[in-house]
Amino acid sequence: MVAAGVDVFSDALRAQGVGVTDVEWRPPTIGLADDLTQLALDPRRAAANRVAVERVLASRSTLVDVRPATEVLGLTGRTLLHSGPPLTWETASGPMRGALIGACLFEGWADTPEAAEALLAAGGVELDSCHHHRAVGPMAGVTSPSMWMWCLADPTDGREAYSNLNEGLGKVLRMGAYGPEVIERLHWMTTVLGPVLQAAVRSRTEPLDVTGILAQMLQMGDEAHNRNRAGSLMTLRELSPSIVAVDAPKSDIAEVLRFIGGNEHFFLNLGMPSAKLAMDAVGSVPGSTMVTTLARNGTEFGIRTAGTGDRWFTAPANTPVGLFLGDYGPDDANPDIGDSAIMETYGIGGFCMAAAPAIVRFVGGTVPDALATTERMYQITLAESPALQVPILGFRGAPTGIDVLKVARTGWLPQINTGMAGRVAGTGQVGAGLVQPPAACFEQAVAALAEESRAALG
Amino acid sequence: MHVSLRSGVYADSVKLMQVSKAVGARDGVTAVLVAMATPLNLELAAGMGLDPGEEARPDQLLVALRAVDDAELAAAVTAVEVALTAREERGSADAVPARTVGFALAEEADTPLAVVSVPGPYAVAEAMDAVAAGRSVLVFSDGVPVEHEVALKAAAHEAGVLVMGPDCGTAIVGGVALGFANVVRRGPVGLVAASGTGAQQVSCLLDMAGVGVSHVLGTGGRDLSAAVGGRATLDALAMLDADDATERVLLVSKPPAPEVAEEVGRTAAGLSTPFSSAALSADSPDLTAAVEALLREMGTEVPVWPTRSGADREVPAGAVLKGFYSGGTLADEAMLVAAPALGDVRSNTPLRPELDLGADFGATGHVVVDFGDDALTVGRAHPMIDPTLRLEAVAGLAASGEPAVLLMDVVLGYGADPDPAGALVPAIRDLPFPVVVAVVGTEGDPQGWSRQADALAAAGAHVFASNSAATRFAVDLIGA
């Protein structure tokens, strides 16, 4: 038997020699009881969630092209995309402002950081979420028209998703740095890296199977969010033969290979749009309580669900807890930032912590903690991925499809692994660690889903 | 300041950041960087004024420290060594406990049934997990909105499973007692019970007559209301009809809503298994009589129900009936049996609205209080577990000096107080007026019918196995 609630029942059952599994039930702290019951009783829920998560599991991602954002997204004029839910210059955090300033300098819209700031403050640049353009970007996620983007496609239906190219570690635009070396690197990525990668990718006879690489990464100690070492190396191995055959100066080829090989997060910008592709496959599914987006803009955390479509539920972002580079400390860290939580939305990253025990040490945790984290995520998700498996758990599939209702009932928030940007614009990366969404996002989602449920059921 | 480069030592960046953090937390250490000597890390070191000042390769380990004095510095260097070689806890997780019924059931594929006793506002979500997993569920919780009960039972009907409850305290499924249930023999009679203590009285009397039960399926006290429409009762009747072990079906309940009674009657008439009803009403006020009728139909001899004689206390002049009950149906039965002889009986669960006692348990005149009523169990355990409220009422009655005959129930079995007589004995031993107790239970119960009855009789109480017999005895004492 399974028993939830007061002990006297299970005690009486045990006294009769009946085996009892006790549920460690806790009063839900997220959502009103009446709303949770409304969702639990909604007759559409089970089927809607099945449809939603099956769309995620059916999605495959292949690398089909590398092109400038102007071509891919049709970005024209002074438009910049950023990570997370929509924001304004006024509400943008330090690293987000730093990245926006850097992008204006890179595009030549301003000659100095001060001029860039004035331009942005005057509303001279249109801002929008990457997520609104089938795109995702790590950390600040700032994507400008001249930047080159990975183009990932689902071979079954041709849908695409995009991300810019990863710049490496340390002082980089996505962490809010905008010094000359940052802008110089962005120019090199536009004039050398992008075109070389485009020629290499286009020359392949078969598009790179990125979902396949993700599956292998989990068997090699990566969780594909904060640890991308195996994935980056496999990508380098796959692309190298095509890269060296590109008609470009040898020195450029060498620099491209050195750049890729020196960046253990190079793969992240391929993993993220692959996860985005899978979550975008869900679309709007009335009655479903599955999360389709977890994203942060450095000020707010935003979530979206299949049952409520494009609507964002936002709340002030938490600040990650973790380890710091050099003598940076907790006071230097900006609140949570980046679209990279799309990895957790897809069921990997923090959800597959058990596959990458090295990551849990970011907060002084242990290997058993890593295993327990993934075990908990099974209790807030709808399915196990047949493609992405965790070896140490007996090759159990990744916990996929976050269920708002289960999050509310268990009180266990999604576990996210993340980098940490300096809170002062221009600083760059200060560390890496673990973070959770604010409970308030889920409270709003529960209320909205319950409202939709009442309206739909009459 | 200590800055060194070491070859042939590798640790990954996470490990090294941990080491830096641990050593940096020492008092006396003012700066620390333990990292592989990559260009990025050398730049960080330079920024901290800890430049190694020599050509470094990325495969070398940079250990750079600054401390307040040499002793602290040396200790910090040692701490780096210790931290680099420290062994971590191995990988095996303690099982993460299930937080929901749904997850627990997914892990326990063979489990046929779930029991939910979480607070009412959250009970339906847990119960719905069981229904969605194709399992029957007993919901002990009360305080569930009626529209949620209806939706839950509709979903259960679709799924072909049974929701026992909400507010279902008693069931026996396949010989396993759930909630407040007694140790009774297995046998041919299947009970469908909208009333917990009613089902306990009936199953215990059957057991005393040597007749066992196949199942006791609870439905929740509200199931036979017009709003719920007897959904669980109808499903339970169908399940018992299909059950090979069940040869007789008996419905135990308070009076159903008329339209529901009609629907239940139609369904009962269509059963292939013989059906009888023990629905309490002014016309059929007696559960014991219903059991006796069933026994006769089955051709089984009706036994003499056990009793114990108590102290021969004088009945005070002008005595009134004070019924202090823990079982709701037993309280109803007492009122239905007593009212024809005594006239109106006031109660917190009255037979007619105008007899409502409110919260005035010390009111004079004929009074029956159900201490198990929902209104009295908010934030406290049921009186079958926690006798406090009832003991207070007994003490209050004694102090009031009102002439009375005290009638009580003691319900035995799983879930109940391990020694209810033990709690009552001091309260009734020295009362100046007669005490009559219905002990509902069996010899097989953990408390043992005879042990409890003997203890109460020794304290002066007249003890009966039948609640209606106890009530009649009390009424006869009053002599109305």
From TrEMBL, chain A:
* Superkingdom, taxonomy of origin: Bacteria
Full protein name: DUF1116 domain-containing protein
Q: Which organism is it from?
A: Klenkia brasiliensis
Automatic annotation (TrEMBL), chain B:
A GO CC term attached to the entry = succinate-CoA ligase complex (ADP-forming)
List the InterPro entries hit by this protein, alphabetically. Answer: SUCC_ACL_C (IPR005811), Succinyl-CoA_synth-like (IPR016102)
| Superkingdom of the source species | Bacteria
Pfam hit, one = Ligase_CoA
Q: Name one GO biological process term.
A: tricarboxylic acid cycle
GO-annotated molecular function = succinate-CoA ligase (ADP-forming) activity; succinate-CoA ligase (GDP-forming) activity
Q: In what residue span(s) does the ATP-citrate synthase/succinyl-CoA ligase C-terminal domain sit?
A: 325-474
Q: Protein name, please?
A: FdrA protein
Q: Which organism is it from?
A: Klenkia brasiliensis
